[in-house]
Amino acid sequence: MSGTITHNGSLDASGLRIGIVAARFNDAVVERLVSGALDALARHGASPDDLRVVWVPGAFEVPLALKTLANSGSVDALVALGCVVRGSTPHFDYVAGECASGASAVALDTGIPVAFGVLTTDTWDQAVERAGGKLGNKGAEAAATAVEMARVLKDL
Prior knowledge:
- The protein has 156 residues and is an alpha/beta fold.
- It has a domain at 18-123: Lumazine/riboflavin synthase (Rossmann fold, 3-Layer(aba) Sandwich).
- It has five helices and six strands.
- The protein has helices at 27-43, 62-72, 91-110, 124-130, 138-155, and strands at residues 18-23, 51-56, 77-85, 114-121, 131-133, 136-137.
- The strands form two sheets. A four-stranded parallel β-sheet has the order 2-1-3-4, with helices on both faces. A two-stranded antiparallel sheet has the order 5-6.
- Helix 1 (27-43) links the parallel strand 1 and strand 2.
- Helix 1 (27-43) crosses helix 5 and helix 2 runs parallel beside helix 3.
C-alpha cells in the first residue's frame, strides 16, 4: 500500500545491552541454552561487555530477576532461560505458568522486551533436543528474538 509505514527489527545486536536470566534448576540443559544465547548474540554483533548473565535458583524466580534488571536501566532487552520438565504432580503447571506470565508482565510493565526461552517439556529428552539437539537451540532463538524486539521498539 502506498504510504504504509512498516517497521521491521533487525538482528544487529551491536550496541545493545542484553540481560540473560537463567534458572539453575535443570542446569545441564540450561547451561546449553545460555551458551546458545551467548553464541547467537556474539554472531549478531553484541559486545561481551554489553551482556549480563544472572543465575537464579529456578524458573519461578526468573520474573523477579527480569523485573529488577528491566528497572535498573542497564538493559535494552532481556532473555529468560530455564527448563521445566513435566512430572507426575501439578508443580509443572504452577512453575511454568507463573514463569511465563511473570516474564510477560515484566515486558508489558517496563517496556523492555523479554524473549521467553524457558523450555516447558514433557520429558527430559525433549528438553535436550531443544537445547542444541536436532530441534536447534531455543536459547539462541530467544536471544535473536530479544535483539529483533529491541531494534523494532527503538524504531518505533
